[in-house]
Amino acid sequence: MPAENLAKAPLRLGIAGLGTVGMGVIKIVQEKADLLALRTGRDVVISAVSARSKSKDRGFDLSGYAWEDDPVALAKRGDVDVFVELMGGDSGPAKTATEAALALGKDVVTANKALLAHHGQALAETAEANGAVLRFEAAVAGGIPVIKALTEGLAGNGITRIMGVMNGTCNYILTRMQATGQGYNALFDECARLGYLEADPQLDVGGIDAGHKLSLLASVAFGTKVNFAAVELEGIERISNDDIAHAADMGYKIKLLGVTQMSGRGLEQRMTPCLVPDTSPLGQLDGGTNMVVLEGDEVGQIVLRGAGAGMGPTASAVMSDILDIARGTRISTFGQPAATLVDAIPAVAATPAPYYLRLALIDKPGAMAKITSALGDAGVSIDQMRQYGQTDDADVAPVLIVTDPTPRSGLDAAIETMQATGVLVSDPVAIRIETV
Ligand code: NAP
Ligand code: HSE
User: Fold this and answer.
1) Which domain holds residue 179?
2) What is the pTM of this model?
3) Which of 8, 100, 155, 183 counts the highest number of beta carbons within 10 A?
4) What's the CA-to-centroid distance between 85 and ligand 1, angstroms?
């Protein structure tokens, strides 16, 4: 140990939650103690821990740490400088213990996107009122240091747009649907067997988990108060193998894509299935990996790719926040003082974009004419159109259309007209094509 480290008091952690992420943090603190001390100039130690079960074998020696049954009691301990919240949940002990720590002026590090998406503004204000910091690198895209990239590396930029694939489970399902031809339900069951799904799977497949992450990125990027309620959310449950195959035919992949941008229209926050060019970095992203694309007015485009979950990657991000605190680096939760974050006006409509439209038409003379005139009457211009040969059903003609950029309202008006003509045998599928 360098002699100068002995002069600085150790940074004492209290860790609440000894699951995947909590044990990953303990592993790093135990195995890399010398490296952490060298990098921060002081020792980083664990004073006490908390979880639901004291007796569970967690594969590491925890006997040197005090035990607290109650995370709030852990947060309040006199020998805890930093409360590390790794339990999860947007209420309950994650919230009460975080509030207790901040009220006492203790710094808090969390990986909990749900907590911050719902209570981030209030918690950041409490932190600042008490001279504490609240950090959450691990909450967004796991091991990818995207919060650090925005608050530090790109601090001199106006951020123009952020796009991201930030739920590994959804990307795994969509990628495997394309690679194996298996349906959504079979792959959902496979994810359940592999332990990929959140305790409430709707958080994953409904886009909610990724929407939480997007709302946090929007706040950091645009200096706005977190507004998860304004995120336009759509999950992947309705994506069919047909859509994936047809999109591939036209040079696209389907991704659960988060997009946030600020324009004269207001703040856009969308977490919805989108088509992206299959040759783009987002189109090439397979399996459970995450990718975040950051666009700044000075730097241009930056692409960050890496593991969005798992013990090592997520603990790596938690440690980044802890080590900042050890070094004395104190950055506001959302990159600027909480009191300066503004209420953003949510955009009433998304920026115009091209759309992919899949239709099943009655195979009768004039059916296609009705479709093209419905689009034309709504001011929607066609970029590409393809009709496929008959499959099993001799009376149905599958048709694919890619529009020129159009407001979603124009497309919706055209779809309503099409539906009234009686030439559709099922509801049309419309998916936005994101320019990346
Ligand atoms: P986990 O494996 O389910 O572990 C949760 C831990 O919290 C367990 O040790 C559990 O105790 C403890 N706990 C739960 N409720 C508690 C309570 N009421 N009082 C005391 N302890 C309680 O969860 P995880 O995967 O590590 O995730 C932790 C956090 O990191 C979550 O916010 C999650 O969203 C976030 N995150 C996780 C990942 C990932 O890859 N896993 C990635 C990014 C972010 P017992 O062990 O005794 O049951
Ligand atoms: N359920 C999340 C995912 C875990 O699949 O990406 C990481 O937040």
Assistant:
1) 146-307
2) 0.95
3) 100
4) 9
